[in-house]
Amino acid sequence: MSNFQLRTYAFVDRMQPQAAAHVAATCQGDVPVAGMSELYIEVAPGNEIFRCADIALKAADVRPALQVVEREYGLLEIHSRTQAEVIAAGQAVLEYLGLKVSDRIKPKVASSAFVTNINPYQAQLINKWRKGNLLIPGKSLYVLEVSPAAYITLAANEAEKAADISIIEVRALGRFGRLFISGTESDVQAAAAAATSVLDELEGT
Q: Is the separation of the CB atoms in 172 and 73 below 8 Å?
């Protein structure tokens, strides 16, 4: 039995423009661009992420945007223009850990909130700390909270695929991941449905 816990294993097949731009604006390392594939791996113990990164980078032609140890968990993001390279890097990490994709923790929606006709003052408060698009007064706002946190990146990408929405903020670190999106009421509803659906479909423990 493996001594490691695979908290997150989230593969993004094709990064959407806003999702890629948000990662690029907030990451420490190599910036991804739209159209690339990416993989988020979160493990425990946290320090193992350094070894995981070493294995992934040596196994395939991928680059890291993020390598973080936060308390007891370690998180790695890798990306490439070629899906096969990202998949190969991920498989090398799984072999090292002695785990399968199905051993990952299945994401769980902790909460969600839908607000229509956002008030100008509330929009201004959110705009103070957002790193994505500006939240425009009068638009609808949807906030999704997920555990483990890194799965929120997959939800954000699927939301952007599904509808004409704006990504306001994506927070993939900590106990919970949070996604803030806005747009018309119908577009936000469609994007929210896509975001939660992709999480529901993931296999895991």
A: no
What does the alpha-carbon distance between residue 157 and residue 179 come to, in Å, rounded to a whole number?
Answer: 10
Backbone angles phi, psi at 52, to 5 degrees: -60, -40
Residue with tokens 């100008």: 120
Beta carbons of 145 and 5 less than 8 angstroms apart: no
Cα angle 182, 187, 192; round to 5 = 75
- Interatomic CA distance for residues 33 and 131, integer angstroms: 16
What is the per-residue pLDDT across 57-93, written as a single tens digit (0 to 9) for each? 999 999 999 999 987 899 999 999 999 999 999 999 9
Alpha-helix runs per DSSP H in 60-184: 83-97, 120-129, 152-162
How far is it, in rounded angstroms, from Cα 87 to Cα 54?
15
Alpha-helical runs (H) found in 112-184:
120-129, 152-162
**Tokens representing 9?**
């294993």
Q: pTM higher than 0.90 for the full model?
A: yes
